[in-house]
Amino acid sequence: MTHSSPEHPPYAPHTSHAPHAAHDESDLAAIAAGVERTNELLTRVLAEVATTPSTHAIFVDAGYVYAAAGRLVVGTEDRRSFDLDAEGLIDAFIDKARTIFPDSRLLRVYWYDGARRRIHTAEQQTIAELPDVKVRLGNLNANNQQKGVDSLIRTDLESLARHRAISDAALIGGDEDLVSAVEAAQGYGARVHLWGIEAGGGRNQAEPLLWEVDSQRTFDLDFCKPYVTRRAAYEPYATSGEGTGHQAAPPGRDDVRFVGAQVAAQWLGARGRDSLAELLPGHPYLPGSVDQELLVEAEALLGLSLRGHADLRRALRDGFWDHLRTQY
């Protein structure tokens, strides 16, 4: 018969791993809790995304719109030869976007145009005051060509897409330089939809741009016609008849007066109210340097020399003063 001794206790089950098992169970519980918290967070995020409407913005290259709509409706791209109802056309673009993106809200309309020294014309000021519209200006060179507009479009389009401010962008333009803007926005997940204006023959949008966008849409003559009106007084300034060398009738006094107000807005924007205060005591006369600048700028806008039309030059000065006096 064998007797146990204190030095040699009877056999007992091995329990040296019990603390490790408890530790493992604790780790698993912590992981499970973390997974549960992550699932809850994802559920809340998905619910928020599901209840947050998509957002779209409309990017309008005004130079393209004027040229394409003018050519389609009145047969000329010369902006001096017709009037464009920008407010009505912008509303039409907004309504069209509402039907195309029914579950999306409008962020705003970006209207890109050119202006000398980036100073708003009277027309551009009116557009800038419209609700949900932001006017962005590039420069106009000596040949009245826009400079810097494409880079403005790219900057805005890329920034809004990067910050997830928009999910869809309606781009109205045709220049191949806009391809990089489209690629940048798409790289951040935004969809870019190219809208254009019907061309009488061929295309007025670059093929690489058409290839890059997510969808395309073209507005026809019936869509554009209500917003474009030919200016009878501007038809045409070029020589009439072949080889006659005679010009058509000059514009009316009201047209020239309006141009005078446009130049005044540019002049005031460039020089400020201090210069206006110095000018007012001389009314109705203008200093020679200001009068010469007014004439040069007006002739550039009109596309016509006023040197032989004293009555129109008086109307031009009247329009200039009309605008300045309303600003004092």
Automatic annotation (TrEMBL):
InterPro entries: NYN. It holds the Pfam family NYN. GO terms for molecular function: RNA nuclease activity. Residues 57-198 form the NYN domain. Residues 1-20 are annotated as: Disordered. This is NYN domain-containing protein. The lineage of its organism: Bacteria, Bacillati, Actinomycetota, Actinomycetes, Kitasatosporales.
